[in-house]
Amino acid sequence: PVHICFDDHxxxxxxxxxxxxxFLQSDESGIPSGTNELVxxxxxxxxxxxxxxxxxxxxxxxxxxxxxxxxxEVNRLNQRNEELKNRLANVVSCGNFISSENNRLKTESVCxxxxxxxxxxxxxxxxxxxxxxxxxxxxxxx
Length: 142
Known about the structure:
The protein has three helices and no strands. The chain has helices spanning 14-24, 38-127, 130-141. One of its GO terms (cellular component) is nucleus. It is found in: Nucleus. This is BZIP domain-containing protein.
């Protein structure tokens, strides 16, 4: 931008008027149409500004895309976590059932061993002389 200060004692030359008019008639890019000295510097600055804006836009888009990818991954991992939790709950439930069943079978096994021992004693008592049979029957009654 051109800054012009007017004092009561200053006069404006024709070149300065031309420069002011060129500045006022410049296009949107900010390049004065009548000055050749400022064109390369202003053009470089304009290109650099445009390039920076495009780079920033690409950066924002890349960041947005990465955020969306991470959000999708978080959702996928949360879903997988829920599936694994459900599987773990099923395995624990099955483990508890198997443990309970195992305890029941152990108890049943002990009961059957006791019953087998009783049957063995009964068979021995039947095959033994009468005094042993009487002792066995007396033991059962007690």
